[in-house]
Amino acid sequence: xxxxxxxxxxxxxxxxxxxxxxxxxxxxxxxxxxxxxxxxxxxxxxxxxxxxxxxxxxxxxxxxxxxxxxxxxxxxxxxxxxxxxxxxxxxxxxxxxxxxxxxxxxxxxxxxxxxxxxxxxxxxxxxxxxxxxxxxxxxxxxxxxxxxxxxxxxxxxxxxxxxxxxxxxxxxxxxxxxxxxxxxxxxxxxxxxxxxxxxxxxxxxxxxxxxxxxxxxxxxxxxxxxxxxxxxxxxxxxxxxxxxxxxxxxxxxxxxxxxxxxxxxxxxxxxxxxxxxxx
Length: 279
Hints:
Number of domains: 2
CATH class of the largest domain: Alpha Beta
CATH architecture of the largest domain: 2-Layer Sandwich
Shape: globular
Oligomer: single chain
Helix content: 25-40%
CATH topology of the largest domain: Ribosomal Protein S5, domain 2
Strand content: 25-35%
Order of helices and strands: EEEHEHHHEEEHHHHEEHE
Largest sheet: 6 strands, mixed
Number of helices: 9
Radius of gyration: 19 Å
Distance between the termini: 37 Å
């Protein structure tokens, strides 16, 4: 009888909004953002194995110790050194380097899976501490859904979306380095952090308060990305903006019909219709 395999979904996220609020002595910038988990996903298949190994159907992704899945596995293995090993097959669907958090989501999926299968019984707060050693976005995915993020993205609080909407993701074939984007940003442009309650006050989403400050450095260098935002706005998006430092631009639409109608304008780009996960 073959060993049983387990198939896990690993969701993407977007930054619904993002402001840069300062810089720490160690050089890291602080931010204020709303992280939103969405239903665009990668797939991880776990199979029992004599030793840990990782493979991926995207040859551009390294499967060595630099992969966040491998880093997550090593962190968890320290807590259960005698536990059964697993081979992980990673099937990528989330575009790489597009500001959608795919690698961080994959790492969090490994952490959550191993906590269950190895019967470690770590609490959510303990899992978040493990995840934070790998990256702030990894920590977000332990609980996922909608969260306000501050600090370097490590100070998280759950939020509730008062309205439903449909997302159109437009993913140009441009890789933007987050490190580069931060280096281009001058602190003369920094703003106060979001008061998250203002964004979702009185039972509706106040899209007029949303912005992503990375647009001020990304769009002048990559004007074709700025044109995507303008076209989404012209197609009736409630709001359009970069996710993180890009290069993905998303438009939030009232319903799927409006999003699919706008999608027809972007036949030269990879696009996805997606929905926020909030329950």
